[in-house]
Amino acid sequence: MNPRVLIADDQALVRTGFRMILTANGIDVLGEVSDGLEAVEAAARLKPDVVLMDIRMPNLDGLEAARRILAADPRIRILMLTTFDLDEYVYEALAAGASGFLLKDVTPEHLVASVRLVDTGDALLAPSITRRLVEKFAAPGGDPASAPTRTPAIHRDLAALTPREREILALMGRGLSNTELAARLVLSEATVKTHVAHIFTKLSLRDRAQAVVVAYETGLVAPGDED
To answer: Is this model's pTM higher than 0.70 or not?
Structure first.
């Protein structure tokens, strides 16, 4: 089944361009809105699978709109739109539960593939950009409560994890996929998926995007760590 999408961006040309690309590829665009308040209302009314959400919008920014949408319906997946790949608000959005981010100059093929990917429940992680982003804005080893925009749903106490789960979380933080994890640890992909599912459950994580954030914020992975 094709994902159903809501587009939230204050630039009409961006909305129109994204709508044309998505509909041409069989993806149903339920609506377009131009500010965060409209996005919250439309998400509640239209029940999209994925929201393409601009970070910087009038009346209510995309970050707060994302928080409100996810609080009302955690099933919805949010892809944040930004002009800059190292935007501090993107990091805060990942910590709050967004499933990834896209630059506004994304290619049509990447846009379509990204929407389909997060609709499956996975996170959109471009390892090189995501790692730079998290390394710049995370606070490894620091007090998560001191950060103003954390979602309380995430548990950052790693004591509940087994040694193997901690190892896998660290490698996820470095951007490894399930296939790469299986090869590195000489495990089957099914076993890796089971470990990942246990990590998500124990730490109340939505997806790999939040796992990366937690890996850095707890100091499990440090900036500059090699794969």
So the answer is: yes
